[in-house]
Amino acid sequence: MAAMAFCVNATDDKSKTSATASKPSLTVNVVSPSQLDINQTIMANGSLAAWQEALIGAEANGLKITDVRVNVGDRVKRGDVLAMLQSDTLKAELAQSEGTLAEAIASALEARVQTDRAKSLQQQGFFSDAQLSQTLATDAIAQARVQSARAAVQLQSVRLSQTQVKAPDDGIISSRQASVGSVVNSGSELFRLIRQGRIEWRAEVSASDIGRIKVGANVKISAASGQVLQGKVRMIAPSMDAQTRNALVYVDLLDQTGSARAGMYAKGEILLGQNKAMTVPQTAVIIRDGFSYVYTVGSDNKVTQTKVQTGRLSGDRQEILSGLKSDALVVVSGGAFLNSGDTVRVVNSLPAAK
Known about the structure:
Elements: H1 2-22, E1 26-31, E2 34-50, E3 53-57, E4 63-68, E5 75-76, E6 81-85, H2 88-124, H3 129-161, E7 164-166, E8 171-176, E9 183-184, E10 189-195, E11 199-206, H4 207-210, E12 218-223, E13 228-236, E14 246-253, E15 265-281, E16 286-288, E17 291-297, E18 303-314, E19 317-322, E20 330-331, E21 344-349
Parallel strand pairs: 1-21
Antiparallel strand pairs: 1-20, 2-11, 2-15, 3-10, 4-6, 4-9, 5-8, 6-7, 8-10, 11-14, 12-13, 12-15, 13-14, 15-19, 16-17, 17-18, 18-19
Helix pairs in contact: 2-3
């Protein structure tokens, strides 16, 4: 009787063990992989820079700065006066040249009168041909002196106008070296101007990616200040940098306002287009030991850990490049609490993403 009792107890223990093993360890939702159109992008880093920077220098030589009217960051328009140079000496020289011109004009008028009289007398026989020729030469010299004096006046007018340093274009003053009281030489840099206030992004792209980028492609840029900007590819550099083996891609920013500044670091995504890709919910992918896995559910409600290769991320969907069949049932969430071979209870099958 004792032996029989022992057999019954052993049978009960096996039943309990079997019941425990078949009991679901987790209740899960599953979904099948779906095909989505995902943007193809190239990630790049670069710097924001001025589209074009104009150097504004002094054209006059040896003059003192008497007034500076702008500072760094000021917006100016074409023709605005940025600085004034001393002009007293040039005004006096202009007045002297104007006086010389007036004297030359008077002399030319007198010479013309003498020429007309000589022609009349020569027709009456009172003037010889030699005398007439001399009178005509004197008249020509007087007219030439008028032209020379007029050119001197124009030259002095130009020099006087150069005492006003003007903006060559609309833009933003990015640098200022001019200071009141300093004497400048011809060609000395006084200001720098970001033409039209335009800033561009210069992205560094590797040789393997440069051929995939097209002019006009849309770009999303994240500046170091936190501002997100939209842009379009304007130009691709015709050569690679010999040191970095990268090429520059010039991107026009569609929004020139905000906190972005020239010289600031920025990273961005260059949009190449869209293509079909197999995706699963991002929550279905588990990272273990540096590899990506998903859990698939079989017909016996047991899960299998499957190693996959992931690609791009689009919203809450993760691209799967390889390792997963298109008809597999993937555990949506909770994979971190599962082990391969666990039995689960499937609540429902979520619809595939549209």
